[in-house]
Amino acid sequence: MVYLILSLGIFFFDHQITSTCTMRSSSKDDENDVETGKLERGREKFVRSNRVVSTHNKALLSGFAYCISSCSMILVNKYVLSGYDFNAGIFLMLYQNFVSVIVVSMLSFFGIISTEPFTWRLVKVWLPVNFIFVGMLITSMFSLKYINVAMVTVLKNVTNVITAVGEMYLFNKHHDNRVWTALFLMIVSAICGGITDLSFNAVGYTWQIINCFLTASYSLTLRRVMDTAKQVTQSGNMDEFSMVLLNNTLSLPIGLCLVLVFNEVDYLSTTPLLKLPIFWMLLTFSGFLGLAISFTSMWFLHQTSATTYSLVGSLNKIPLSVTGILLFKVPTSLENSASILFGLVAGVFFAQAKMRERSQS
Fold first, then answer.
1. Are 334 and 88 in contact (CB under 8 A)?
2. CA-based nearest residue to 153, from 357, 305, 330
3. What is the pLDDT of residue 55?
4. How crowded is residue 231: how many other Cβ atoms within 10 Å of its Cβ?
5. What are the percentages of helix, strand and coil residues in the chain, rounded to 5?
6. What is the pTM of this model?
7. What element of type H or E holds 57?
8. What is the DSSP string of 199-237?
9. Which residue ranges run through the membrane (predicted)?
10. Under 8 Å between Cβ of 30 and 47
11. Who contacts 5 (Cβ-Cβ below 8 Å, separation ≥6)?
């Protein structure tokens, strides 16, 4: 996490310098205004500079909260599935979504947030994308059990490649050469990483590739479904809180059916892990982390922009990969470490290329 803290620290320090210079210039203006009878204008500048500092502090805090929650979620899931050798990934997803539903419902009940009431028309519109959402979460659990965290973060770059191709064919969106170069580097890094992975597991890699396709499908279809869902809601709006509650609520019966289909009930009835209070605390904590990712991502996106959000998300993979290797004592080689670093740098390059592409359009 040292790299993350330094990155955010540089971001904060840069804005603090700008804010300090602004405050100093405001102080000089105040002295001049006392002499010229224009003190009020200096006070207004001082207030504006304080607002700038406050805005930067909120952006730093929200970005740090988002990075901590997203990193912690992946590491905790990895610890539950591999550290405890827990063989019920669907149940883990089901329980995490259940915790999210309970928390959001309580916040809505006490009037802290507002959510859209569920209607049959809304459920019918949202149900297809919810199947993709559940598949995305489950395949992520399955892959994380067999693959180390660093390789998961590199392989997730394949999602960007699939999404870019999907945007080109489905929405007729064209990307510039920088984006395609970054996508090519991602593919190369994923292939090199798999070849040099000392703990290579074909089952885990298969689940991760399926997860990449499902994640790309989810992002490509979500926007269209959101626009359709707004038309069938009572308020004509579909905010993030309603989306989180709807997604997680609809996933509960689907997850319960999959627990029965994959016969996780027999395992759950015999495993001694469910008799450990500390294990239940860990499962509940992971549920709160899943909800925290939704809230902090919305908060961070509101305080900054989509481009900053995507860039920080790419930078966030670097400390996550290093932490995953150190915590779980992953056997690695110089070649594998180089391919992982290459993939992470390619992800940052992709985020920067997308930022330039958006600014030009």
1. no
2. 330
3. 53
4. 11
5. 85, 0, 15
6. 0.76
7. helix 39-78
8. T--HHHHHHHHHHHHHHHHHHHHHHHHHHHHHHHSSSS-
9. 59-80, 92-113, 125-147, 179-196, 202-220, 241-262, 278-301
10. no
11. none
Residue 33: HSE in the Cβ half-sphere, 13 Å Cα cutoff:
15
Q: Treating both helix axes as pointing N-terminal to C-terminal, what angle do 177-196 and 334-360 enclose, rounded to 10 degrees?
A: 160
Q: Name which residue leads in pLDDT, 138 or 352.
A: 138
Alpha-carbon gap, residue 209 to 337, rounded angstroms? 21
**DSSP state, residue 80:** I
pLDDT tens string 181-210: 887 888 888 888 888 877 788 999 999 999
Query: What is the C-alpha to C-alpha distance for residues 74 and 132, in angstroms, rounded to an integer?
Result: 20
Reading the block at residue 47, the tokens are 């207030």
List of residues 6+ apart from 302 with CB closer than 8 A: 62
DSSP character for 110? T
Do residues 95 and 252 touch, judged by C-beta distance below 8 A? no
CB 339 within 8 A of CB 187: no
Q: In this structure, how many other beta carbons lie within 10 angstroms of the beta carbon of residue 278?
A: 9
Length of the chain, in residues: 361
pLDDT digits (tens, 9 = 90+) for 93-127: 999 999 999 999 999 999 888 888 888 999 999 99
Residue 314 exposed, middle or buried by CB count within 10 Å (0-12, 13-18, 19+):
buried
List the structure tokens of 308.
């900053």
Task: Select the more confidently predicted residue: 211 or 60.
Answer: 211
| 128 within 8 A of 225, measured Cβ to Cβ | yes
Residue 361 has pLDDT above 70, yes or no: no
